[in-house]
Write a structure and sequence with these properties.
The termini are close together. The protein contains no helices and 16 strands. It has a 16-stranded antiparallel barrel. A hairpin with a 5-residue loop joins β10 and β11. It is mostly beta strands. It is globular. 0% of the residues lie in helices and 69% in strands.
């Protein structure tokens, strides 16, 4: 399956999956549809993710991300290196019995984040507590999620740094298979982002 859709307002991403549904390729494009970066994913014989290559438009290697996975194939550790082999970023994940991430830790030279998550009986994310340290500043955020009848979140209520409330709402457009192909985000009632996806089925 190939999937195309907006990643952020000024960048598009095209994703390709193998017959088992594993993501094998991501290609990023700028607003002029010129390729800027691609990730190629490699799996072992059991279908467990091993690493991804970071390639520039000339197909030159500019980085590498290594994955450690548990017996269920979920990523427990992630390390990203630049083209000189220097560690730039690390992440660590702890899962519950259902395989959903309970605790996520992200580390960079001047940044760290710890995210604790809770889920409902359907496995949908309900709440997240975030403790972020950015250049020495401590930030504590909390987010609560609500879902529509399609199972996609349509509202996120956030309390940023303990004292600033924010509401993000989402409206969707769906294809005949029930997958969303358009998502319209509003922040405190004002338009924020529009994401469109083109999904090709094989």
């Amino acid at each position: 399956m190939a999937e195309k859709g907006a990643l952020i307002a000024e960048m598009n991403v095209e994703k390709t999956f193998d017959s088992q549904g594993n993501l094998i390729l991501e290609i990023y494009f700028d607003d002029k549809n010129a390729e800027t970066l691609r990730y190629e994913y490699v799996y072992n014989a059991q279908g467990v993710k091993k690493y991804k290559l970071h390639l520039n438009p000339k197909r030159e290697k500019v980085g590498l991300t290594l994955f450690n996975c548990n017996g269920e194939g979920s990523i427990t550790k992630e390390e990203t290196y630049n083209q000189n082999g220097e560690l730039e970023y690390s992440a660590f994940f702890v899962y519950n019995e259902q395989g959903f991430p309970l605790e996520s830790n992200f580390l960079r030279e001047d940044f760290s984040a710890k995210i604790n998550s809770t889920y409902d009986h359907k496995g949908r994310l309900l709440e997240q507590d975030q403790h972020i340290v950015n250049k020495g500043e401590n930030i504590l955020n909390k987010a609560k999620y609500r879902y529509n009848r399609h199972g996609d979140y349509d509202r996120i209520l956030s309390l940023l740094n303990r004292n600033f409330a924010q509401k993000n709402t989402f409206h969707y457009k769906y294809d005949r298979n029930g997958n969303w192909i358009g998502r319209f985000e509003y922040q405190d009632g004002k338009p924020k982002t529009i994401i469109e996806r083109q999904i090709e089925y094989f």
